[in-house]
Each structure stands twice: as C-alpha cells, then as structure tokens.
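Private note to self, pasted from the team thread so I don't lose it. Backbone tokens:
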C-alpha cells in the first residue's frame, strides 16, 4: 500500500465500539487534567459582552470569507477575548471529567490548547500568549498568560506558516495545538480522526466570530510543523500544532 493509500485508510473507522473497549477510560484510568500548569504573567482581558450584539446569523454566513490582507488597525483586547472565548471558552463541567465549551468535541474531550502570537493588540505587549480557559470559570472573563517575546516577529510567523507572509501582517494569529492523550483516554486508536473533526468546529467558530466583530480571518493548514512546535515550545508528540487562524481588519 502506498503512503497515500495508508493515509486514506486513516479516515476509516472499522469498529468504533470494540476500539473503545481498549481505551484508558474503559480500564478505569483517571482522566487527564483540563489545563496545563500556568508559567507566564497573567493578563485578564476586558469583558466582551457588548460586542457582536446586533448581527444576524444569516449575515454572518453570507459574509464569511477567507481574508488574507489586513490593515494596520490594532485589535482590541475585548475582541481578542471574544475570539478566544468563542473558540474554546468553557461554559460548564460534566462530572469533573469533561468540559462543555462553545464548540462541540467528540466525548467532550476538547483536546486543544490555544496559543496567540500578538503583533498589534491595544495595550498588550507583543509576543507569545496562551489562553487559560479554566481561569475565572463561570464568568465570561478571558485570562491569557504571556509566554515570552517573539523577536523578529514577521520572519518568525512567516516561517511558522510555511512562507505565507501575509499572515504576519495580521494583529494576531491563533495557533491551535492538540494534546492527543486527552482524546485517546476515551477513544484510543480512533481518537485521531475525531480530533480532526473537532478541529473543523473550532475553525468555523473562529471565522464566524471574526465576521461578527467586523474582522476577517483565514484558517491555515499549511504551516511548518517543526517551526510552530519549536516557537510555541512543544515536544511534537504529546502536544503539537494542528491549525492556525490569522485575524485582523480586512483591507478588501
Ligand atoms: C482546513 C483548511 C485549511 C486551510 N489552509 C489554508 C492555508 O494554509 N492558506 C490559505 O491561504 N488558506 C487556507 N485555507 C482557506 C481556504 O483556501 C478557503 O477556505 C477556500 O479557498 C474557500 O474560500 P472561503 O473560505 O473564502 O470560502 C484553509 C481552509 C481550511 C478549511
């Protein structure tokens, strides 16, 4: 079988029910933690509740289009908060095992982390940030931690997104990473297909949320795995980059 054919088979799901019987969950193993240890300086972003109040759902669908050209206009912290909440915000817990969020996820596993490369957000030092959805639970208050500087921002982002230099002009790029064990705990070897399906919901919420804010976005699967994982600080096995979404004020 060629590699291409093997990859096609990856999309198959021969016996989901039997496969689940082999999972750690079915063996009584404790579920993995919801979040990662906090290591950076915390920033609590302003509430976003008055944003995107008067936009019809149909108009969002009509206006959603990938935008790859951005003005120099900074993003506000409330807009960034809205983008983060609407793609990964935690609304409630189920039995201390799962979280319910603004996106669906198979088995409510939610195997993603959100990292943000900030170029131009009002009042926020540029650099690399990480969203902490488990902070301020029960409130729509978004907390992020600052993980460090991003020297030579444009060059670094362009390398991360495999030469797509336009993305470095965006005030922020959201990088979604996957912690596969979060899904494997429940779905064992079937996890990886589920995780990719989960990811599509995150991307769609990101795009519709950007439109709701009068912003534009572009989802990116063309990224450099090694560069992204190196810049974010991931081991590429237990956590690795799976998606990028640039967001900014479109010029078109
Ligand atoms: C999974 C996925 C990966 C994508 N990767 C890229 C990318 O790396 N670079 C890019 O310019 N556009 C990327 N796009 C955007 C598509 O090119 C775009 O959705 C498509 O051309 C249709 O245009 P529309 O989004 O305006 O409807 C991606 C979209 C999806 C859903």
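Design output:
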């Amino acid at each position: 079988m060629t590699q291409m054919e093997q990859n096609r088979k990856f999309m198959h799901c021969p016996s989901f029910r039997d496969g689940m019987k082999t999972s750690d969950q079915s063996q009584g193993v404790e579920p993995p933690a919801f979040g990662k240890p906090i290591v950076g300086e915390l920033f609590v972003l302003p509430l976003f509740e008055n944003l995107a109040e008067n936009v019809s759902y149909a108009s969002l669908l009509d206006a959603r289009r990938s935008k790859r050209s951005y003005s120099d206009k900074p993003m506000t912290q409330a807009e960034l908060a809205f983008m983060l909440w609407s793609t990964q915000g935690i609304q409630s817990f189920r039995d201390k095992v799962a979280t319910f969020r603004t996106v669906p996820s198979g088995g409510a596993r939610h195997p993603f982390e959100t990292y943000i490369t900030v170029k131009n957000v009002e009042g926020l030092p540029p650099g690399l940030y990480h969203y902490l959805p488990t902070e301020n639970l029960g409130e729509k208050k978004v907390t992020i931690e600052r993980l460090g500087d991003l020297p030579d921002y444009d060059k670094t982002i362009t390398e991360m997104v495999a030469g797509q230099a336009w993305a470095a002009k965006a005030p922020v790029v959201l990088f979604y990473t996957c912690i596969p064990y979060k899904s494997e705990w429940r779905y064992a070897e079937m996890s990886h297909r589920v995780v990719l399906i989960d990811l599509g919901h995150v991307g769609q919420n990101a795009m519709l949320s950007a439109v709701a804010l009068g912003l534009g976005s572009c989802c990116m699967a063309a990224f450099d795995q090694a560069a992204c994982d190196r810049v974010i600080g991931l081991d590429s096995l237990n956590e690795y980059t799976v998606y990028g979404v640039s967001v900014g004020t479109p010029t078109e």
